[in-house]
Amino acid sequence: MRTSFAAHIRLLKKELPCFFPVAIRRLKLPSHRLGDCDFDEEEQKFLIRVNNALPHYVQKDILYHEYAHALAWAPGHMTTTIHTASWGVAYARTVRLSNGEDSPRRDDVAAHIKFQ
Ligand SMILES: [Zn+2]
């Protein structure tokens, strides 16, 4: 069963909350641009944009990539565009969540199996 884009957003926000709110939009972007993540200083929130012309599975991958930029952001670490080591760690966390490797529900299942 295909998980909806909105469900991926709900999962990310619930399991991996960011320092500031994250607004996520799918919209028409130039064909060379897959997506991006910016921090709106005035509104104090992240804005993630994903190119809606891409296939669904690519949009999901872009979402997890860009969300990692927001997740890696911390005071004194203002960039949302560079693939730093901290972005790499954040991206691993989003991918693990996407794969169900960090899901509390999966941990519950694993614990249940272990004690059977
Ligand atoms: Zn990036």
Folded structure, characterized:
This protein has four helices and three strands, in the order H-E-E-E-H-H-H. By secondary structure, it is α+β, with helices and mostly antiparallel strands. The protein has a single domain (about 5-115), classed as Zincin-like. The protein has a three-stranded mixed sheet, covered by helices on one side. A hairpin with a 4-residue loop joins strand 2 and strand 3 (about 45-50). The longest helix has 17 residues, at about 55-70. The chain is globular, with a radius of gyration of 15 Å. Residues about 105-115 have low confidence and may be disordered. Zinc ion (ZN) binds near residues 65, 69 and 83.
Distance between the termini: 28 Å
Please tell me the overall pLDDT.
Answer: 85
Quaternary status = single chain
Q: What is the β-strand count?
A: 3
Based on Cα principal axes, name the global outline. globular
Number of domains: 1
The helical percent reads: 40-55%
Strand order of the largest sheet: 1-3-2
Short description:
With 116 residues, this protein is an alpha+beta fold. It has helices at 5-15, 56-72, 85-98, 104-114; strands at residues 22-27, 35-40, 45-51. The protein has one domain: Zincin-like (2-Layer Sandwich).
Supply database-style keywords.
single chain; 116 residues; Zincin-like; globular; binds zinc ion
List the helices and strands and how they pair.
Blueprint: H1 5-15, E1 22-27, E2 35-40, E3 45-51, H2 56-72, H3 85-98, H4 104-114
Residues 65, 69, 83 line the site of zinc ion (ZN).
